[in-house]
Amino acid sequence: MPLQITRAPLASSSVETWTLNDPASRNALSEAVVEGLIAACERAASDADLRGVVLRGAGGHFCAGGSLGGFSKTIGQPLAAGEADPLVPLNRRFGALLQALCALPQWFIVSVEGAAMGGGFGLVCCADQVLAHTSAQFATPEVTLGIVPAQIAPFVVRRLGPAAARRCLLTGERWDAATAQGAGLVDEVVAGDMEVAVQAAIARHAAAAPQAVAATKRLLLAQPETPLPALLDDAAMAFAQALRGPEVPQGLAAFAARKAPPWSAKP
In this structure, how many other beta carbons lie within 10 angstroms of the beta carbon of residue 94? Predict the structure, then answer.
């Protein structure tokens, strides 16, 4: 299976680990992997029991980027006059995956070991929190191969800002974990056991109420595109709905009693 999904309990809910599982290709993004991840995102979007998602790679690497194997017959071949290019919808499908990952209502943690290249770099840019082992290497080498980093570019800009995005997208330079952290791509560099670090990150996120997380992520996702007055109107509605919903009374009661709220638990 190129994508392996496992589920573990968390309080009265659960957390899933999505593992890119094709070590022979360093977990390259084949069409099957992309479609599997899109299906997982669609299911997660309506899964009220799912609190969070961890994305990682098998075999010591995160993701070596897009697989060009399916495009081999088209490389260097011009289109016939009037012919629609089948490469366009295939490439756009990966962009749909990146959108779906950013829109997950659950918190989304990415754990990187080894290579995170090209499309794998794009996956990292969708995370709410990025953990990188000291073995991690990041790059967007597309332009050095004559390829345009088409679908990942907007997400790299959103994550890093225009200046750092230009630096990596226009040169293809390679970053180690510390450099990636300095650029804002990585939140935490892990020198020891990656599994311990992942479980600690899950525990930190488990303190947050799931409905509040989903509403906050919607506001964050809308922020770059929505005019400020409309965004603040949406924010006021989300605030009011939260106060009238079930989580705030539970959270305030737990705080007053010096207890953990019902959604908080160690993984």
Answer: 21
CB 56 within 8 A of CB 21: no
Indicate the length of the chain as a whole number. 267
In angstroms, the CA 24 to CA 5 distance is: 19
Distance between CA atoms of residues 248 and 267, nearest Å? 23
pTM: 0.92
Q: What angle (nearest 5°) sits at the alpha carbon of residue 62, between those of residues 191 and 152?
A: 120
DSSP 156-200: HHHHH-HHHHHHHHTT---EEHHHHHHHTS-SEEESS-HHHHHHH
Query: What's the Rg (C-alpha) of the chain?
Result: 20
* Of residues 71, 57, 56, the one with CA closest to residue 129: 56
Cα 184 from chain centroid?
Answer: 14
Handedness of CA 153, 158, 4, 23 (dihedral sign): positive
Residue 50's closest CA among 127, 126, 123, 105?
Answer: 105
Determine the Cα–Cα distance for residues 172 and 141; give it in Å rounded to an integer: 4
Are the C-beta atoms of 158 and 103 separated by less than 8 Å? no
82-112 pLDDT, tens per residue? 777 777 888 899 999 999 999 999 999 999 9
Closest CA to 34 of 91, 94, 92, 89: 94
